[in-house]
What we know:
This protein has 80 residues and is of the alpha+beta class. The longest helix is centred in the first third of the chain and has 13 residues, at 8-20. Strands 1-2 form a two-stranded antiparallel sheet. The protein has helices at residues 8-20, 26-29, 64-70; strands at residues 39-42, 59-62. The chain is built from three helices and two strands; from the N terminus they run ααββα. It starts with 7 loop residues before the first helix and ends in a 10-residue tail after the last helix.
Amino acid sequence: MEIDYRSTRWKRLRKKALRRDGFKCCRCRRYGKSVEATTVHHKKHVEEYPELAYDLDNLESLCTACHNKAHPEKGGARRK
């Protein structure tokens, strides 16, 4: 399933997730940090779980660094 990240449906759901998470990164919060979230991430990837593509419970707000770590397959992880 392909998600149109420009669609009104996605934009509304994205904003709802960010608002729910207080516009803060969920992963950083686990470590006591308060970092602004810039991305909404699917916990279970859409390619494997298309039925969860628009499920608010499958979304988490992340900062850019955490989102990059979540997607090493896209070259997002830092190289040592």
